[in-house]
Design brief:
Blueprint (H helix, E strand, L loop, with lengths): L1 H10 L3 H14 L9 H20 L4 H9 L4 E7 L4 H15 L4 E7 L4 H5 L11 E6 L5 E5 L4 H14 L4 H14 L2 H14 L6
Parallel strand pairs: 1-2
Antiparallel strand pairs: 1-3, 3-4
Length: 205
């Protein structure tokens, strides 16, 4: 496992580099991943617009800001994603906003289909679901915890729908996008800052 993570970290790129990659793919009418289709290219284009909006508008509360600034543990966030993933387009900008506020958090991004050994070590109910955030201790190389592919409230929303209706419908997926838009990244910020508290309890005192 440590070798797989080390290899993926070496291939990881910054959030800014990832945003440039997505913009380049939009210009080429393409997408990340092994499968190249018009639909996935269109999702990539839509997600570029989503990320551009969230990069400008996501706000972090004073309480969350304080928690982030009090975190004093050197960690790396390794994020697995794909350009066409709708959940990732909402989550990555919020995760990046948190990382930018801390000198102790280094964020790197890798593409799922280029890192399947890594992805298969962090499946969600047996599925290669993205985005997946892996928090790694810089000193020991240990995996401290993981997060994703959705924030806690969206996960509950999805699980309830699946329990009642089976597969997710196109209508539900549209409703989920409305949820993300209404939430404005706050559930993600709350979830992740709470995880920082669990890693370093004095942050939440």
């Amino acid at each position: 496992m440590s070798a797989i993570i080390k290899n993926s970290l070496q291939k990881g790129i910054s959030y800014q580099a990832y945003r440039e990659l997505v913009k380049h793919l939009v210009d080429k009418k393409s997408n990340t991943g092994e499968e190249k289709t018009k639909a996935l290219a269109n999702y990539t284009k839509l997600n570029d617009k989503r990320m551009k909006r969230w990069d400008k508008t996501i706000k972090i509360s004073e309480a969350s800001n304080r928690r982030i600034n009090e975190f004093r543990h050197h960690i790396t966030w390794l994020v697995i994603t794909e350009s066409w993933c709708g959940d990732a387009a909402h989550m990555l900008p919020a995760i990046n906003k948190i990382a930018e506020l801390s000198n102790y958090i280094d964020m790197k991004i890798v593409i799922r289909d280029e890192n399947l050994e890594l992805m298969d070590a962090f499946l969600t109910y047996g599925s290669r679901s993205v985005p997946k955030l892996i928090m790694i201790d810089d000193e020991t190389g240990d995996v401290l915890t993981t997060y994703g592919p959705r924030p806690s409230e969206a996960t509950s929303y999805v699980n309830r729908f699946k329990a009642e209706n089976g597969e997710l419908t196109p209508e539900f997926k549209e409703d989920l996008q409305h949820w993300y838009n209404d939430d404005k990244g706050q559930n993600i910020i709350e979830d992740v800052t709470e995880m920082l508290c669990q890693l370093e309890p004095n942050v939440c005192q």
